[in-house]
Amino acid sequence: MSTSQQPSQPAAAKAGAMLDKLVVIDIGTMVAAPVAGTLMADFGATVIKVEQPGSGDTLRGLGPFLEEESLWWNVDGRNKKSITLNLRTPQGQAILKRLVARADVVLENFRPGTLEKWGLGYEALAEINPGLVMLSVSGFGQTGPLSNRAGYDRIGLAFSGIMALNGYPDRPPVRIATSMADYFTATLGAFAIMTALYHRDVNGGRGQQIDLALYESMYRMTESMTAAYDRLGLVRTRTGNVHYGAAPGNNFETSDGRYMTLTCSGDAVFRRLCQAMQRPDLHQDPELATHAQRWNRVEELNDIVGQWIRETPLQTVCDALDAQGVPYAIALTIADIVEHPHYAARENIVSVDHPTLGPIRMQGVVPRFSHTPQRKVEPAPAVGQHNAEIYLEQLGMSAEEFQRLQSEGVL
């Protein structure tokens, strides 16, 4: 291609502004639905967080706390605008409809049927704004015999089948240490919203409601579990840190008392691991030539690998594995992470300037895009911090009406 035929270089993009024309109304609480909004806000969407007057979002009341402020809220409430509005009042419901008329997306995670009782269900809002996309997150979905049952993160883990797989076979199931069902539902919800918006704006479709249950997002993560049961009658059970797809594979104790995660599935990786351990006899053994054969002797192989890692200085182990290109990682604590040079090089941790608490370090914006710089993360707002901006400037509410609704507890 000649120089004259080279495509023009893209214009410099505004940092984090890929979604800057998108308006999202977040009437959810806690994590699953609201964090879908946080993910979009990280890339420039205007996300208006609707909170209960006075107390605000439930997440504000969950620790750990710094000077009576929830650090959890400060992570997941970032980059949003906060307004207060009592949706249980007719006036509040009418104001929400005015907001929805100007929005692209509504996020909610009320118990199914609650918004319909208030005249704020999808069908009612779609009459006002046919292009509206509504993400409705619930424990068990909007339909089905369990739709009215309350559901939270670990409930979703249990009902999805994930909880029964987590832990050791001789002990009770163990929950995943973070709110995995909430956060993956938020991620899947954000993807679903963008899919619906693409269909609306590119394919000429209309807006629609997205019905997403906590358990469904986790059930989608269960690998081949259903197919294996369907065709082979296999029922997955708890196996601790041993996984059928990795032989050898475990969390191995290191010489300094930490743990190294190492898994080996491919034949080439197994050969390189044996070279790192200076055990060519293992990969030359015809009875260990395939992963299926190695899985039959996984305990024996894990003992061999475990002994090498435990009895060899950690740096020597890491150097040997790196030299052979064997994947591994030390199980890092957060104290390790904030000091790790790779996290620093990738800018995975950002410092957010809170107006009263000072700088707070937290997760950075991911994923990265080649032509759009990461946006500067704005601190999570105080309860109702943007009431005047949204109600007076954007909705055109008069000062008299604004003050009256505040005195009546609507705002």
From TrEMBL:
InterPro entries: CoA-transferase_III_domain, CoA-Trfase_fam_III, CoA-Trfase_III_dom3_sf, CoA-Trfase_III_dom_1_sf. It comes from the Bacteria. The keyword Hydrolase applies. Its EC number is 2.8.3.16, 3.1.2.26. Gene3D superfamilies: Crotonobetainyl-coa:carnitine coa-transferase, domain 1 (3.40.50.10540), formyl-coa transferase, domain 3 (3.30.1540.10). Pfam families: CoA_transf_3. One of its GO terms (molecular function) is formyl-CoA transferase activity. The keyword Transferase applies. Keywords: Hydrolase, Transferase. This is Acyl-CoA transferase. It comes from Bordetella trematum. The gene is baiF.
